[in-house]
Amino acid sequence: MSARSKARKRALDILFQADVRGDEPATILAAEAKRAVGEPARQTSWLYARDIVDGVIDNRDAIDEQITTFSKDWTLARMPAVDRAVLRIGVWEIMFNDEVPTAVAIDEAVELAKEFSTDESGAFVHGVLAGIARAS
Hints:
The model has no long low-confidence stretch (mean pLDDT 93). It is built from seven helices and no strands. By secondary structure, it is mainly α.
């Protein structure tokens, strides 16, 4: 698994925890930062995970607006928490990170959804992100 793939999973963990616990993502991020200092082997993936979470925090309104616009018949509140977190990561990479090709952002998000969410989540995430990518 590449360092960026590991980072996406770490970012998913942070965003999911914050959502389920009702905490601010920055609070969970700070706790993870302390933990990362003590685990040098995780440094490579930590840096990009932090970039993702900071990006989602900084652009959350725009990201959620895109998700709401392109998720037909699904409100953010109705989505599984994992799907919300995966979509936020994917939208951030598509809209705000020029270093990641759109196809890679979509593929990585779909793989996370397939691995950690429902059987239908991969197709759902793909549909939402593909719509956002076409409109961007």
